[in-house]
Write a structure and sequence with these properties.
- This protein has 86 residues and is mainly α.
- The protein has helices at residues 6-25, 31-74.
- The longest helix is centred in the middle third of the chain and has 44 residues, at 31-74.
- It starts with 5 loop residues before the first helix and ends in a 12-residue tail after the last helix.
- The relative contact order is 0.04.
Length: 86
């Protein structure tokens, strides 16, 4: 999304801040309980993201080794460098 008008970004930021303030005002939990719930959620999301990153890293490394192995077997050997005798 490209903001062509500087007021567009200011409106988005103001809207996000107003939405966050309203969410905190109308939450059924106390302030401390809300903060604790948010911390638990963020820790869980952080752990999930870390696990997803490790899985992606393992998959990328496995594919890299697979491609590397396939390319090494597809390369011509030293016998292809020998002069051909007709």
């Amino acid at each position: 999304m490209v903001a062509r008008n500087p007021w567009t970004m200011a409106g988005l930021i103001a809207g996000a801040a107003a939405g966050a303030a309203l969410a905190l005002l109308f939450t059924p939990l106390s302030g401390r309980d809300t903060i604790d719930a948010l911390r638990r959620h963020l820790r869980s999301a952080s752990a999930d993201a870390r696990e997803a990153g490790l899985r992606a890293e393992a998959e990328i490394l496995a594919r890299y080794h697979q491609v590397k192995s396939a390319s090494m077997t597809a390369l011509p050997g030293p016998e292809s460098l020998q002069p051909r005798v007709a």
